[in-house]
Design goal:
Elements: E1 2-6, H1 11-21, E2 28-32, H2 52-55, E3 63-66, H3 77-97, E4 102-108, H4 134-153, E5 156-162, H5 180-185, H6 190-202, E6 208-213, E7 216-218, H7 225-231, E8 238-240, H8 245-260, H9 262-265
């Protein structure tokens, strides 16, 4: 299979490319990124601007894994519009033009970010969206554009609402993770991330799906039953959400900031 990965030089891009290239004879991996970064990319391509120098890379591609974006949840519309919306539209048009069979979109838990402090809500693939920032809103937009491509063009689209896969600490979970209990619930190990991605690449007969992807986090509200049913995904790594006093304190302050409006939000860290 010929697999094209956008954002291939980023954190989760590198992990996926390394994983796919390690499977003997299975995948021909094409990498695109704005950064020139060997061995992942040998040229710089700005996908937010339509150009034949990168769109021609879609010729003969079976599956596009779309990871490229401004990856920061704190991003504002200044970067979200070109990097998370315009860029996505370009990639999807290139996929349509060159008759790609499937798109796997790196969506985000931030589509449901408004449920963070509603502890009684189980978060499933059918939970009504509630983004709280431009980043989450753009991810929701990407999911719905994928629905249109699936319905009208017949392209298989799988949106994976990816959990928290860290750059830091070799991606080991701990109470020190950003966003307190919420961040711990969302932990996604490298092994589970690559498993979910590869299963999304090879699964048969899926026209459209939006799926949660985390590791097995005990104490989490994120439901993985639909992911397990559609992909055959079974998390290999497990973590128990831990709330020492310091985490409980910062989580309480974060809830206060969330409910207190813009004045309070300016007083507290975005990492809480």
């Amino acid at each position: 299979m010929r697999i094209l990965v956008t954002g291939a030089a980023g954190n989760i891009g590198r992990k996926l490319v390394d994983h796919l290239r390690a499977v003997p004879g299975a995948y021909d991996v094409v990498c695109l990124d704005v950064a020139k970064c060997a061995p992942y990319t040998d040229a710089s391509h700005d996908l937010s601007k339509w150009n034949d120098s990168w769109t021609e890379q879609f010729v003969g591609v079976d599956v596009v894994v779309h990871l490229a974006a401004d990856r920061y949840p704190t991003a504002d519309w200044k970067t979200v519009l070109p990097l998370n919306i315009d860029l996505l539209l370009n990639v999807y048009e290139a996929a349509r033009k060159h008759r790609v069979s499937r798109i796997i979109f790196a969506s985000s838990n931030w589509v449901l970010g408004g449920y963070r402090f509603e502890g009684n809500v189980c978060l499933t693939h059918e939970t009504s969206p509630r983004p709280v920032n431009p980043y989450g809103a753009a991810k929701l937009f990407g999911e719905r554009i994928g629905k249109q491509l699936s319905d009208i063009q017949g392209i298989s689209v799988i949106n994976l609402r990816i959990g928290y896969n860290q750059w830091l600490r070799d991606n080991m979970p701990s109470p020190e993770m950003e966003l307190g209990a919420w961040g711990q619930m969302l932990w996604l190990s490298d092994r589970d991330y690559c498993q979910a991605m590869e299963k999304a690449i090879i699964v048969k007969d899926v026209a459209y799906a939006t799926l949660n992807v985390t590791s097995r986090t005990i104490g989490s509200r994120w439901d993985l039953s639909e992911t397990e049913r559609v992909l055959g995904y079974v998390p290999q790594d497990e973590y128990r959400v831990t709330l020492p006093p310091r985490v409980r304190l910062t989580q309480g302050l974060a809830r206060l900031r969330d409910r207190g409006g813009s004045a309070l939000r300016r007083c507290f860290s975005e990492d809480w």
